[in-house]
Amino acid sequence: MGFWILGSNLASVTTAKAWAGYYLDGKTAARQQVTVHTSAHALLITCEDGHQMTWPYGAIRQTQGAYKGEPVRLEYGAEPAQALVISDSGFLYTVHEAAPTQTTHLHNPLNREVRVRLTYVAAVAVIVIGGVLYLWGIPGLASVIAPRVPVEWETRLGEAVIEQLAPSSARCIDPPRTETLDRIVAALMGQTQSPYTMHVIVVRDPKINALALPGGIIVVFSGLLERTETPGQFAGVLAHELQHILKRHTTRAIIEQASTSLLLAVIGGDFSGAMAYGLEGARTLGRLQYSRQFEDEADAQGMRMLLEAGIDPQDMIAFYQIMKEKSPNPSGGVWAYFSTHPSTEDRIDRLTSLSNAASTKPATFLPDVDWTRTRALCRALSPQTADPVSSTP
Question: What is the structure's pLDDT at 134?
Fold first, then answer.
């Protein structure tokens, strides 16, 4: 039991607020209602029958009440210890006011308030720092890393991604028609010096989309190919995607948006790691969105590429006009392409302005090609065998 003192001594020791609580003797489950006062050296406890106890602060242990709304439980003496339970956590304020130097081992609610404020401050700081890193730090790091990524690594990553994004069973291959697509790529590249071997892979997919992969691969969905009406329109799409590769926009964007593991593989030139991250790279490309700066640069340089190849830039503009007219509903299939590209209106206006600067009107591009037949590449093939279907024109 605690130390007993006379009631007159209790009255002389403290006149502080009395706190209601329950006392447990540690030997039975019975609870006694008590009244607790604080003094400069101990808690003063009065039972219902008038018996009084003192618990020196230095011998008290706190086992509950460190959290807001939780009752305060104090223990005293050897095990099985006596216990005092007070439901009002404000009791702890009084304890620390009465004996600030002797109760430092007991929880101080004032510290909890400080911790809460510090937690809020830390949370805000994390959000701010995260925002700064996202807006400036990561893009800045990517801009430094991307130009130093070995071409071999980009090529290996592109090959790993293509296996996930466009497996062999989904590709449309018909030499006479794919040769036409190769001619368009060759015309666009012209005399451009590039460390990449550019080539187009067409996959059987009705979505209107095209993706530029690291290392020189452009994946074109059959839905987009079939929407083009001339070789020049298709060349306009390819010119834009080729610029993303040449300017390393794709590599930089992947570095910005991919996971830490893929970023470490980029920094370390881990070829085996790049292969292992092919699936992740494919997923990243699927949700990839270039910055407005990258898109503007790809448009401007793509237009220059068209003019140098002798292709009418109006073909490029005409394709986007077709897409705009056939996509009144953003949830439609055409939106798959525009969801990862700038506003159609802005793009058409910008391209029109660039095309007006051309001094001459180029001749018709690839007049000897039957484009209706070429763009039907995937429809002309059997999905099961990938062999030409003889009944298709």
Answer: 45
SS3 42: strand
User: 111-168 pLDDT, tens per residue?
Assistant: 766 666 666 666 666 665 544 444 444 455 555 565 667 788 788 878 878 887 888 8
Q: Does 331 map to a domain?
A: yes
β-bridge mates for residue 219, sequence order? 201, 211
Measured over all CA atoms, what is the biggest interatomic distance in the chain, rounded to whole angstroms? 117
Based on the fold, state whether residues 103 and 76 are members of the same structural domain: yes
Helices (H), the chain: 7-13, 91-98, 109-132, 138-145, 151-165, 175-189, 222-227, 231-246, 249-257, 260-268, 271-276, 278-286, 292-308, 313-325, 335-338, 344-355, 371-375
Asked whether residue 113 falls in the same domain as residue 173, the answer is: no
Task: Single out the residue in 148, 177, 199 at which a domain terminates.
Answer: 148
Please provide the distance, in angstroms rounded to a whole number, between the alpha carbons at the two ends of the chain. Answer: 103
Q: By C-alpha distance, which of 294, 282, 289, 306 is closest to 355?
A: 306
Split at pLDDT 50, 70, 90, the class of 12 is: very low
